[in-house]
Design a protein that fits this description.
Blueprint: H1 2-22, H2 29-49, H3 55-78, H4 84-102
Helix pairs in contact: 1-2, 1-3, 3-4
């Protein structure tokens, strides 16, 4: 169950980032407040998962999902560059997440 909670927390990392982007530098308060609420939920879920998961693994998976997810969303939604090097780096992050999960 802790892994499922951690995966949802990682997805929420991407969601709050998008909400903060939509807030346009915190000038659109509805999005900013929603981003704060979603980030708090994500933090709480990570904290709960730490009751059973190793801290290093859980943190790396959570932040890795956020980093890789944000990069992918940037490419798909905001026309950020999708160079081979960038995609390879995203793949390395994903490989690290999978490796940590498999070694737990």
């Amino acid at each position: 169950m802790a892994w499922i909670v951690l995966l949802i927390a990682g997805l929420l990392e991407i969601a709050w980032l998008l909400l903060f982007k939509a807030s346009e530098g915190y000038t659109r308060w509805g999005y900013a407040v929603a981003g704060l609420v979603v980030s708090l939920i994500s933090f709480l879920m990570v904290g709960w998962s730490l009751k059973t998961l190793p801290v290093g693994t859980a943190y790396a998976v959570w932040t890795g999902m956020g980093a890789a997810g944000a990069a992918i969303v940037g490419i798909l939604m905001f026309n950020e560059p999708a160079s081979g090097t960038r995609l390879a780096c995203i793949a390395l992050i994903v490989a690290g997440i999978v490796g940590l999960k498999l070694t737990h």
